[in-house]
Amino acid sequence: MTAETTTRKSTPSIELGGEACGRERGVDPLMAVSVALAEAAVEARRASATISAGLSSLCSFSSLTDPVGAGRAVLGAAKSLTIGGLGFSPCGGLVGEGLRAIGVLGRRRPLSTGLAVESFRTRLQAAAADNPNLAVSDVQNLIAALVAANPFQVAASLRSMIGNLGLTRTLTVLAPVTIELCALGGLVDANPWNDDVAWVVLMGGTPRADPMAGIPVQALARFSRGRGRAHRVEPDRILRATMRRNQANDIVDYVNIIAAMGNHGLVLLRRIRCRDKKVRHVVLLPGTSFARLSNATPQDVVSCFDNLVHIDTTYTRAVRKLLADAEVPEGSEVMLVGHSLGGITAINLACDPVTAAMYRLTHVVTVGSPIDNKRPADPATKVISLVNECDVIPCLDGRGPACPVGVPASWTEFTWREETYDFPLSHAPQTYAATLLSIVPDIRERTNTLIAAYDGDVIADRPYAVRDN
Known about the structure:
two-stranded antiparallel ribbon; alpha/beta; nine-stranded mixed sheet; 46% helix; 11 strands
């Protein structure tokens, strides 16, 4: 049983494409090389796009006034985009993207792609230096096969890993670099439609399509456009007993209640009379049900995609109606605590200017949630993110443990590497609660210190059922 903990509330130290980078002030040399390669790759791609745009302009009707000069310029630009130092690199615009697709199908690797591949390879090398599980031969063979764009060797490496470790342990081992491996595979395969995902991940952004086929996330998000509804319900026996046992302003107690609610459409509103005599509110938000792609609640898979790319979602609308139904006074201080999809919903509510203006959203506490691409509307909102690096789900925002892009300096991110439970158990709220309780109790204590304003006596616990419509 091993657990390594890291706290990140840092001012990043490298700049990558305008985004602050560097998880710590002391930057790993390999990661610095990876960042430099990424910057070079982006500049090469930008140069290719600029030349492609110029080539399109030269071929326009206006260039016919000087056909000789235009012809020479077209020839020079075409050489630069095909046999020059940039490699076969047309991109941008209808013609440029069409030619780029032909190049990808023909396995032509331009300079920009080569630099991006080296950046990913170096990033993965830096991750392996920090995580012994990634230094084993099966993982290194997988990375080498991806860099070489050899799908047969990739399949053989994965087959070997699964044969040696089993599927769930393989997912756990690869979890810290899953998003990088998927992006690298998408960049070097023969599919031109998923390349943008790799470039977004390279720069620490949030993918807007799946890295395998390139299907836009919006395509699935459209299926989750309910009006959102919330109504009071009575707790079942298990939830009632769990609420009674977990009365403290403690992150473990909150996660225990979230686990007891399950993910079939329940949300809890807790009223607390705090030590300073103020009444504050805590909203507990469970995560995703994976039983079906879509169901009658906003806690389904399509809602997960919706919340990743939008702020106003079925889940957030349902929670706003919950707050209205519960007659939470305007200006009340509210803390949002969510696991997985519930954490994304919590940060989405904080990102909504209307909700942030109606209530004082003092804290957003997320557990195993991909939220790094979101920014609260009120800069005073304290964001606390708890992440097990062996959990795949928090990487869905494009920022895994190996990414050099840091969280905002005002955020607090607690991470640890706990390998006792394989994925998907590593993502379960019960696992997070048990880990915080017994394996990383220091993170539990520090989190509780950050939310200490909510210490007090529970006045009421009100479970609500949330539905799409």
